Amino acid sequence: MSAEYTCLVVEDSPMMRQLLVFALSRVKNLRVTEADDGVDGLRKLAAGRFDIILTDINMPIMDGLKLVKRVRSDPMHKDTPVIIITTEGAAEDRKRAIELGANAYITKPIQAPQVIAKVKELLKIVP
Fold first, then answer.
1. What's the distance, CA 78 to chain centroid?
2. DSSP code of 125?
3. CB neighbours (10 Å) of residue 33?
4. Would residue 33 be called left, alpha or beta, if left means φ above 0 and alpha means ψ between -120 and 50 degrees?
5. For a tag site, which of 10, 20, 110, 126 has the least CB within 10 Å?
6. Which residues, in sequence order, are CB contacts of 126 under 8 Å at separation 6+?
7. How far apart are CA 92 and CA 22, in angstroms?
8. Residue 74 CB: number of other CB atoms within 10 A?
9. CA-CA distance, 28 to 8, in Å (whole number)?
10. Is 92 exposed, middle or buried (0-12, 13-18, 19+ CB in 10 A)?
11. What is the pTM of this model?
């Protein structure tokens, strides 16, 4: 029997969210939940348990860095892998995201194989 995984995608751009969800649909046994921004993401995290979180940095209301900080202080999700997906390619942003507890950082434009490989790596899904 295969394992069942859950993923939360937090992205304010509907088109980018759709691209991520489409890419993640190629990961077997992965159920994806979508959130519009950090606050929506926190609401969804409070309602259930997730195995991995993908989040953008630049979002209205609550950005991805604040979300990572909140996730790391949440006892239920403090160890959940977080992948930052953003247009910010600066080394400073990458360093800040990793310092806050993000596990990986992917720069847009995203490449589906890269996203899939990183999710599988962090969830320890063997091909």
1. 14
2. -
3. 17
4. beta
5. 126
6. none
7. 30
8. 12
9. 15
10. exposed
11. 0.93
